[in-house]
Amino acid sequence: NITRAEFVTVIVKAFQLGEHEGKTFADTQTHWAKGAIATVAAAGIVAGYSDNSFGPDDFITREQMAAIVVRAANLAATDKSVNFPDSADISDWAGTALATATAKGLINGYEDGTVKPKVNTTRAQAVAVILRALQAKK
Predict the structure, then answer these.
(1) Cα(124)–Cα(83) distance, rounded to whole angstroms?
(2) Which of 19, 23, 36, 96 has the highest local Cβ count within 10 Å?
């Protein structure tokens, strides 16, 4: 699995965002990824769980990954809805991002037809999604 801090660090490097001063969350003030987290927060790519909490060492879920990568790649939102057997499990805040990520081919469903929005993302899945997003951005 990949943590939220690791994922946004890869996002900063992959999308060549460069470090910028930005929001420092209470739980990131002394974290090794403080700079990357501040950069993506300054760019409007992440907002955190709250004003004071980012959860840098939490594993990132598929719906969180979708929201971050769609914003990082600046992909136009789709008006399509997500149609998976477990679509009801998608958080309200992640619906448009997950629909966009699936419509653009960044995220695919599993063999059983589900998307598993709240399942932790593996490093391999994260890299595949980021590479697809970089291609979609071109």
Answers:
(1) 24
(2) 36
Q: Are residues 47 and 114 in the same domain?
A: no
Q: Is the pLDDT of residue 9 over 90?
A: yes
Q: Which of 43, 60, 77 finishes a domain?
A: 60
Signed CA dihedral, 12, 18, 19, 20: sign only? negative
pTM confidence score = 0.93
Answer yes or no: are the C-beta atoms of 86 and 112 closer than 8 Å: no
What is the Cα Rg of the chain in Å? 14
Residue 18 has pLDDT above 90, yes or no: no
Decide: 120 and 6 in contact? Cβ < 8 Å: no
pLDDT digits (tens, 9 = 90+) for 27-36: 999 999 999 9
Total structural domains within the chain: 2
Task: Supply the DSSP string of 59-99, one letter for each residue.
Answer: BPBHHHHHHHHHHHTTPPPPSPPP--TTGGGS-GGGHHHHH
Question: Is 82 in the same domain as 124?
Answer: yes
Q: Using the 8-state DSSP alphabet, how is residue 122 labeled?
A: P
